[in-house]
Amino acid sequence: MKLEVDYMVETLKTVLKPMIAEGSVEYSDIDLNSELGFSIEKIIYNEKTRNLIIIAPDRPEKSSLIGKGGWVVGRLREELNVNNIHVDAYSDMIIRIYRMELAMKKLENIIPRMETTTSQPLKNLKDLLKQRIKNLGEFNFGTNFESELEFLKTNKKLKKDLIEDEKSNNHKAIVALSGGVDSSFSLIVAKLMGFNPIAVTVDPGNIILPTYFKNSVETLTSSLNVFHEYVEVDMGIIVNDALDGKIHPCGRCSSTIETALINYAKKSKIPFLIFGDFLATGSQSIISIDGFWRINLPAMLSATKGETKSLSSYFNIISKGGYGCPLINEVHKKHHHMRRYSMQRILRETRAGVLEPGQALNLIKKTL
User: Fold this and answer.
1) What's 199's DSSP letter?
2) Short-list 296, 276, 85, 76, CA closest to 180
3) Is this prediction's pTM over 0.85?
4) CB 45 within 8 A of CB 19
5) How far apart are CA 101 and CA 108, in angstroms?
6) Nearest-CA neighbor of 49 among 134, 142, 126, 156?
7) Omega into 280 within 30° of 0, i.e. cis?
8) CA distances from 67 to 1, 52, 255, 264 (A)
9) Which of 13, 129, 158, 364 lies 20 to 30 angstroms, CA to CA, from 346?
10) Beta strands in the chain (DSSP E)
11) pLDDT at position 270, please?
């Protein structure tokens, strides 16, 4: 194993070191068939950030470049003295680009039917999709919105003025905010896109929404100067049935939360309801429901878990790294057969390309 890692690192270092010595560069179709048995689709190096992107043809080549346990890229990063190495598979990127193209076509169909003031955030989303489609390999939310994010984080003048009328027509979107990195990502992007969002957190109690999530919710909404409201729901029956081993709670819990948010959206007459879901993708990432539009923002943007974590961390929202809420963890302890249903949910996101196999494996281990 050590010999294989040493050979991969030395071969890649020999090829890549002269390239990055030139400064910021982009090379395509690097033929390494005689050395490694495959070609590299693209090499992108940013001298300013000292970040290196390697785009492999497919997942098998990606796995080879990463190496077991990340040994190859870890050693290579040290040998090349770069800040970070990100390896992606071109086959995965093609799927993500296609899904974004489907979403963009849907937006192009919807936008002309709306008033300009309502449609402007969707136009901004369409422009963002264009940027990602054109340059997915290098796209970084933090870099792309660097000045805007810095403004949101440091502008003290805005933070003293909470929005007085949360039902104002100036608000274009309600964002379902749980305090996790995915919903936090959605709120940040909604703010950047000009939705002037309201954040709504459905509170079923601490066993489902623990205090550390509430702390994250309040930290983020304060930082972004976004009006926030809790909506309490009674999930006593779901909690009791789950603890008794009668049901796996996630499906019913999600359905109850979504129903509460849909009812809130109907009453508020705000045109968009945004979720931090990765599914459904493409044209189904924005659908019409009872007079408003439901948007799955990470799904629309074909964002990865790494991207949602990275952008959320800008406002100190950090992933806890575990699987699910305290309730599901307690259910796993008491009723081992329920773990299989949690694993099925993890595998569903893995099949959709949302989770990397390594990420999925870590989550599955945490359910056991």
Assistant:
1) E
2) 276
3) yes
4) yes
5) 10
6) 142
7) yes
8) 10, 16, 40, 48
9) 129
10) 25-32, 38-46, 51-56, 84-89, 173-176, 198-203, 228-232, 272-275, 286-289, 292-296
11) 92
d(CA 17, CA 213): 44
Q: Which residues contact 307 (CB under 8 A, 6 or more apart)?
A: 141, 185, 298
> Across the beta sheet with 25-32, what order do the strands follow?
25-32, 38-46, 51-56, 84-89
Long-range CB contacts (within 8 A, 24+) of 240-248: 242/327, 242/328, 242/331, 243/327, 243/330, 243/331, 243/334, 245/331, 245/334, 245/335, 245/337, 245/338, 248/331, 248/338, 248/341, 248/342
* CA-wise closest residue to 316 among 229, 176, 175, 221: 221
CA 96 to CA 99: how far, in whole Å? 5
Alpha helices by DSSP H, listed for 67-195, are 71-80, 90-110, 116-134, 141-144, 146-154, 156-159, 181-192
Which letter does DSSP use for residue 315 in this model?
Answer: T
Phi, psi (degrees; rounded to nearest 5) at 180:
-80, 175
Q: Which two tokens stand for residue 270?
A: 């705000």
Place of tokens 């560069």: 25
Tell the residue number behind the tokens 């796996």, with chain if given. 248
CB 227 within 8 A of CB 166: yes
Q: Report CA-CA distances (Å) from 118 to 113, 115, 121, 187.
A: 10, 5, 7, 18
Residue 174 structure tokens: 């309600």
Structure tokens at 319: 């992933």
Which two three-digit tokens encode residue 296?
Answer: 């799955």
Report which of 368, 300, 285, 302 is spatially closest to residue 329, judged by C-alpha positions.
368
Interval 202-216: pLDDT, tens: 999 999 999 989 999
CA 4 – CA 164 distance, rounded (Å): 63
How far, in Å, CA of 248 to CA of 293, rounded? 29
- Which helix (H) or strand (E) segment holds residue 61: the answer is helix 59-66
Q: pLDDT per residue over 41-70, tens digit each? A: 999 999 988 999 999 999 999 999 998 888
> Within 13 Å, how many C-alpha atoms sit on residue 86's CB side?
17
